[in-house]
Design brief:
heterodimer; A: alpha+beta; 6 helices; 8 strands; globular; B: 179 residues; Aminopeptidase; 28% helix
């Protein structure tokens, strides 16, 4: 589903994704380096494919999707929680798509907002993610948010035919409560 | 996945055949046993029924990223099931799941043999590179069998699932086609 909650911090605001955002996401996904770090998008989607992605997220009751924008209202990317209600956990996925906005701390702040929502509103026990071991900047940001390395999944993904290890990271409720 | 439709795989102690619609009552019986359910996410769904089993199978049987086998002894007695799920052609990996539903067949090497057979199928027929699994941290019997088959411990996923409503850590393990 598309989140109806607006979450606000100093530098970013999370708000529902709107159809107007899709053309921006689609255009930014032409960036090979962005897709490399996102890990979940192999090719730049067409406009129609991007719309299908949006519809599938809107219809999925186990997904909560927000757009990330800067404090002055510029769209920067998106962040989502994929819930496993039975086990009270979620997987988080985040992307700052606009490379003009990289390195400004938007991702870290957006992640903190969503973790607060996951442990506060949703009362989850665990929020996890897997990321490319070579994605040093992202791992640093996740650690700032309290994510703990739990393991290394060997040769977890193939990038241009090359096997890449993924780091498994998570925040559990007790980590969040003592932060 | 259609490849399994005609596939029968033979090991030293077991025969694997594709799961069929008529197996529902078997699965309902296995999952109705609290000692079997204990190690599965069904621990959180105490009221197992044929109807629940049917709904679960309706989803599973149409999932193109899944192959489902019934494990039989060499004289044709069905004793459990083994699956590959999340078969990812792009990254050439899958997740393995196994349960011996007939408790009197526990501890006799049937599971280990079935895993070896499915790994051969995964690497040689499906051409995968990595097979992974997660299991309860205190599932010593299971972990021993996985290690015999070449699985390596990669990390501990804290509070990964609930068992009887309480958070439980799980171990992630994998085996790679090339060491």
């Amino acid at each position: 589903m598309i989140s109806e909650s607006i979450l606000t911090a100093e530098k970013v605001r999370l708000r529902p994704v709107q159809e107007d955002d899709l053309a921006h996401f689609q255009r930014w996904l032409a960036d090979d380096e962005l897709r490399r770090w996102l890990g979940s998008v192999d090719e730049q989607p067409s406009v129609a494919e991007e719309f299908d992605w949006y519809v599938s997220k809107r219809q999925d009751p186990d997904t909560i999707l927000w757009a990330i924008e800067s404090a002055d209202g510029a769209l920067a990317g998106n962040i989502e929680l994929r819930l496993n209600a039975l086990n009270r956990r979620a997987e988080v996925g985040i992307g700052i798509f606009d490379r003009e906005q990289w390195g400004k701390g938007y991702g870290t702040e957006a992640m903190r907002l969503v973790l607060g929502y996951a442990f506060g509103e949703l009362k989850l026990n665990r929020v996890e993610l897997a990321t490319d071991e070579e994605n040093v900047r992202a791992i640093r940001s996740y650690e700032k948010c309290g994510c703990v390395r739990e393991g290394l999944m060997r040769k977890h993904r193939l990038i241009d035919g090359r096997p890449i290890d993924s780091v498994m990271m998570a925040v559990i409720r007790s980590d969040w409560e003592v932060r | 996945m259609t490849v399994a439709d005609e596939t029968r795989l033979e090991g030293e102690l077991v025969l694997l055949r594709p799961r069929v619609d008529d197996d529902l009552a078997l699965f309902a019986r296995w999952h109705g046993n609290p000692d079997v359910r204990h190690w599965l996410h069904m621990s959180e769904i105490p009221n197992q029924s044929l109807e629940l089993e049917r709904q679960r199978w309706q989803i599973a049987r149409n999932d193109p990223t899944r192959v489902s086998f019934v494990i039989e002894t060499l004289d044709g007695v069905p004793i459990g099931n083994i699956v590959l799920v999340g078969i990812d052609a792009a990254h050439r990996r899958a997740e393995l799941g196994i349960a011996i539903g007939e408790k009197e067949h526990w501890g006799r090497g049937y599971g280990t043999d079935a895993i070896r057979v499915v790994l051969r199928f995964a690497f040689e027929v499906l051409n995968l590179r990595r097979v992974e699994l997660i299991t309860d941290i205190d599932n010593e019997r299971g972990i021993r069998a996985y290690e015999k088959c070449g699985f390596v411990r990669e990390g501990v996923l804290r509070a990964k699932r609930l068992r009887y409503g309480e958070p439980l850590d799980m171990l992630i393990m994998s085996v790679l086609r090339e060491g």
